[in-house]
Amino acid sequence: MTDILLVEDNELNRDMLTRRLNRKGFEVRTAGDGQQALDEIASKRPDLVLLDMDLPILNGWETSAAIRANESLADLPVIALTAHAMTGDKQKALDAGCNDYATKPVDFPDLLEKINHLLGNA
Amino acid sequence: MSDPLPTRELARLQSLQIKLGQILVKSKLNDAFRSDLERLFAAIENNVSKLENLHDAGFALQSLEDAQLRHDIRNAIGITRGYAELIRESDTEEIPTATLSNLLDKVILWSNRSLSLLENGKRKKNGAHSATTNAIDSGSSHQISTSQYEGNILILDDEPANRDLLQRYIEQLGLTTFACANANEAFDVLKHEDIDLILLDLIMPQMSGHEVLAKLKESQLWRAIPVVVISGLGDQNEVIKCIEAGAEDYLQKPFNRTLLQARLRAGLDRKRWVDTERHLSNELEKSQRFIKNTFGRYLSNEIVANLLDNPDGLNMGGSLQTVTILMADIRKFTTISEQLPPEKVVKILNNYLGTMADLIMEFGGTVDEFIGDAILAMFGAPVTGPDDADNAIRCALTMQASMKDVNQRNKELGLPEIEMGIGINTGEVVAGNIGSVKRAKYGVVGHAVNLTSRIEDQTRPGEILISANTLNQSNLRLQTGRTIQLQPKGVSETITVTQVLSESDHPIVENITEDSTTDYRAGGEQ
Question: What is the ipTM of this complex?
Answer without folding.
Answer: 0.79
